[in-house]
Give the backbone structure.
Amino acid sequence: MLALAGPAEAAPEAPSCALRLAEVARYTPQLPREEPAECAVDDLMRLDQVIMPDRSVVTFNPPPTVRCVMAEAVAHWLRTDVAPLAAGLGAPLNAVSALDAYDCRPRNRVVGAKISEHGKGNALDVGSVKLRNGGVFNLTDPLVDKPFREAMRVSACARFTTVLGPGSDGYHNDHIHLDLAERSRGYRICQWDVRDPAPDVPLPRGKPAELIALQAKSR
């Protein structure tokens, strides 16, 4: 005789973003932003530190305020991708400069433009990484190790739906913009030129001493 099946057990609820974030970062929840209406966000977090797999921490200067899902994406990017790449420069990763995060403004601060992903708490601008030995490496500096910058570009473009840097639009020549904009058909934008150092331009040759003397006599 077949046994009757009992009631199906409810699937366990997936942990919330805040709980997931707590496993990899230290953060401070921010009050919901309701005004202006176009920039309303209810899950803003101030991302204070990212906890590395070895339990060391990477800080931000200054700590950025972003949506929880953006904070989670940034934390995993630093833990999994950036930290190993930075270690190749000579020392473990210590800090990241965060130049802009949540900011209710139009794109590129152009009056009349659409609201930036910054206005949704969905974007972060990164300038440089700092190592524990004090070394600072700007991500857009052509003098910084090119393989490092190329690997950073690949990793960022794999994790974020928008990556803008030098060569994108003229507004991102001194920093890298990262965001999680949602577009139809999963369309992504990756525009970051990893540039070579400018070639040395030879200085004009000086005048021969004989010519200088001859010109002096003719005056």
Summary: The chain is about 20% helix and 25% strand.
